[in-house]
Each structure stands twice: as structure tokens, then as C-alpha cells.
Amino acid sequence: MAQLPPSLQDLVNRFQQAQNQLQSVLLRKQQYEAELRDVEKALGEIEKLPQDAKIYKSVGSFLLQTNKDAAVQELKERKELLELHIKTLSRQESMLREQLDKLRDDINKELAKAKGAGGAQQTGGVAKGGG
């Protein structure tokens, strides 16, 4: 491939950085969603137990006994925090996808200009795909 003009190279670099950021956001979001499912499952099981049931929680390499109310409260707080993280990451994901769409359009415009100015120069657009 021929040497890209600096303006096009900059757009491509920004596009790749945004793609990497999106991948990172999606991975973190996926991890939080998995943890949220675990918390919801644990919460559902604990709420089925009688009030005086023995409940243990893992703290490092130890299991510590706790009561039902404390366990439910702790899980509800964790669930709330996870939902907040997921909401924040969803907003970041949306913004990054918009940024990628704009950069993709800008790259394709630059490629069209370069193709028009370069005559026989072979160029191809940036394909739109899920990130």
C-alpha cells in the first residue's frame, strides 16, 4: 500500500485507538455483567433462607459467618454499584461507537479525496462492523 497522507494516517490512528478503547470498555462491561448475575443469584438464594440461617461469606482465603440481614444489605449495595458501573460503561460504549462512526466517515472521505487526486492509486474504505 502506498504511503498514506499524514491527515489520513492520523485519522486511522485515532480510529484504532477508539477501537481499542471500545474493546476495553466492552470487556469491563461484560465482567461487571457476569458479576451482577452472580450477585443477583446469591441474593435470590439468601432471601429464600430463614432469618436465623447460618450464612458464610468469603473474605480472602477465609469463610466468615454473617447474618442474613448483613449479607442481603452487602449484596444489594454491591448490586447497586455494579449497575452504576454498567450504566457508565454503556454510556462510554455509545460515545465510542459514535466516535468510530464519525472517524470511519472521515477516513472514507479522505480516501475518496486521495483516490480522486491520486488517479491510479488503489485505496479502500473502512468497513463498518461491530466492535
TrEMBL record:
<comment type="subunit">
    <text>Heterohexamer of two alpha and four beta subunits.</text>
</comment>
<dbReference type="GO" id="GO:0005737">
    <property type="term" value="C:cytoplasm"/>
</dbReference>
<dbReference type="InterPro" id="IPR012713">
    <property type="entry name" value="PfdB"/>
</dbReference>
<dbReference type="GO" id="GO:0006457">
    <property type="term" value="P:protein folding"/>
</dbReference>
<keyword id="KW-0963">Cytoplasm</keyword>
<dbReference type="GO" id="GO:0051082">
    <property type="term" value="F:unfolded protein binding"/>
</dbReference>
<keyword id="KW-0143">Chaperone</keyword>
<dbReference type="GO" id="GO:0016272">
    <property type="term" value="C:prefoldin complex"/>
</dbReference>
<protein>
    <recommendedName>
        <fullName>Prefoldin subunit beta</fullName>
    </recommendedName>
</protein>
<dbReference type="GO" id="GO:0051087">
    <property type="term" value="F:protein-folding chaperone binding"/>
</dbReference>
<feature type="coiled-coil region">
    <location>
        <begin position="8"/>
        <end position="117"/>
    </location>
</feature>
<comment type="function">
    <text>Molecular chaperone capable of stabilizing a range of proteins. Seems to fulfill an ATP-independent, HSP70-like function in archaeal de novo protein folding.</text>
</comment>
<dbReference type="GO" id="GO:0051131">
    <property type="term" value="P:chaperone-mediated protein complex assembly"/>
</dbReference>
<keyword id="KW-0175">Coiled coil</keyword>
<dbReference type="Pfam" id="PF01920">
    <property type="entry name" value="Prefoldin_2"/>
</dbReference>
<comment type="similarity">
    <text>Belongs to the prefoldin subunit beta family.</text>
</comment>
<dbReference type="InterPro" id="IPR002777">
    <property type="entry name" value="PFD_beta-like"/>
</dbReference>
<dbReference type="InterPro" id="IPR009053">
    <property type="entry name" value="Prefoldin"/>
</dbReference>
